[in-house]
Amino acid sequence: MNDSNLSRRDLMLRLGQIGAGVVTLPGLLHAESLKSLEGSKVRGGGRAKSCILLYLWGGPPQQDLWDMKPNAPEGIRSEFSPVATVTPGIDFCDHLPLMAQHSDKMAIVRSLTHKSNDHVPSVYHTLTGTIDPTLAGAPRQRRRSDFPMVGSVVARFSPPGNLPATVTIPRPVGHDGVTYSGTHAGFLGPQYDPLELKPPGEVEGPPPHSLELPDGLSDRRLRNRYSILQRIENLDRRLDQVRPDSPLGLDIFRQQAVRMLTSPEAKHAFDLEREDPRLRDRYGRNEYGESFLLARRLVEAGVRLVSVVWHYIQPNGNVMNIWDAHGGPNLSCCGMLKKDYLLPPLDLAYSALLEDLSQRGLLDETIVAMYGEFGRTPKLNKFGGRDHWGSCQTAVLAGGGIQGGQLYGSSDQHAAYPRDHPVSPQDIAATIYHALGIRTDLEIRDRQGRPFRVCEGESIAALF
């Protein structure tokens, strides 16, 4: 049977068999028609075009990286030594020499604080800018009742393009069969979910959104099937006088999905083989460096917010949230940080990213935000590790109108609590929205129609 002779039932069945790429991408790409209706009401604040969110899942230790306390007593003081950066008055640890050469592009916020020492609510809080008091203990599978993550809010107020407004690479936060709450669009619906090409480690199933066509289905056959579907639906509308719910109809989003699956430009954005091998070496030939490079390619192609989730998949498939540096009998916190899955690739990839964005003229229009779900305890535990500590951590911001070479806020003598200018996760979210020109007083509604502000935080105006 050729494509032109497909019955409607057979057509629907076979369209459903060609993979998540076609079935879910139209919903994923159904963003954003409301943006064209709302017009200038969305705009406010900065004029950055995009954001790269570097999420150090597990919680990096501020005392060992960007807020060192060399005069603290033994048992609190880091094993590492501070090293001067190119900005007078700002020191990093001596295992971040390349990053130190780019401190003039960074704003170091040393007073980020919240009340949770638990991974689950802290991930939710830092990725959505809201608190869910029901989250605690074991991870809970993400739900459609969740508040949307920052990238999904950005997608909600972004115009449609050839690529989704938000993408998460290499995979979202999750393990043991659970994808964490706070990692998708929640009550905004699947049309605003980030594009996810890989499931979390230890979560079985196919990639949530595939850009590859199944074997045996060519671009031409996909276009033919789509053309048939269009004719059937146009006939239905004439016969039944059905008017689409959306002012633009679903068809525009199906068209966008087909463009993504068949467009060389969309596929090229994800193809690192098109990059100069020397630049790939500069970022690092590992999953972290390649994710940072891919993030740059995606924002260059028009994606508004790319989340890069930093964790480690062991050869046996098990997940390690490696920034969770509790230490062990044979490995201190600083011993972990020196491993080839933490500070060496971070120093290489982050410095390459700022350098690359700057050289391409993209840094001014791309805000780069780096933080985790919390900081670490000032006091070392019996293994020389540091435990969970929501009361104080450091966030590193760059680009997108942020004035580089500055400190904002400070911590006490042990980096345990903010000394001044405390900043909440909702303030960080508001700062990202401000840079992207999205007003925080805009209204979003949950599935019951209840209104919520985009964000209750305050942008850190002094950074701009």
TrEMBL record:
It comes from the Bacteria. Pfam families: DUF1501 (PF07394). SUPFAM superfamilies: Alkaline phosphatase-like (SSF53649). Transmembrane segments: none annotated. InterPro entries: Alkaline_phosphatase_core_sf, DUF1501, TAT_signal. This is DUF1501 domain-containing protein.
